[in-house]
Amino acid sequence: MREIGAEGQKLNSPKLLLAGWGCRQRFLSDGRRQIFDFILPGDVFGLCYRPEAVALCNAVTLTRAVVSNAAGLGDAVMNHGEAVPGPGTLPFHPVPKWRWLFLRWGAMFGR
What is the domain-level CATH number for residue 104? Predict the structure, then answer.
């Protein structure tokens, strides 16, 4: 298992998983692991539309993996959204603070 994104890291350096499996996870106080999302080949991670967004959990590989820098793709989506169909054309919706607090509470108490 190798870390490919750290909790608290700014989400401004997109990466592309080319091979292998990964996940977004957090270790609980009693040693258990809580998995929030799987990262599969073809998935882009480490990029967010929210200004000054940071990762709320770690991203790690679960198998041997090949990860590529996707800075060019991130630049195209973030700075030229009108030319790239998809999420770049959607309006910005901030994540409510309660969602972040719920994540923290779940990791603290494990339930």
Answer: 2.60.120.10
Find tokens 């993996």 and name the residue.
65
Predicted TM-score (pTM) of this structure: 0.66
pLDDT at 77: 64
pLDDT for res 90: 47
The tokens describing 103, both together, are 């994540």
Q: Give the C-alpha separation, 62 to 41, whole Å.
A: 12
Distances (CA, A) of 68 to 13, 18, 21, 34, 52: 11, 7, 14, 25, 23
As for how many domains the chain has, the answer is: 1
**Which stretches in the chain have pLDDT values below 50?**
88-93
Alpha carbon dihedral 63, 25, 45, 99, in 10-degree steps, equals 160
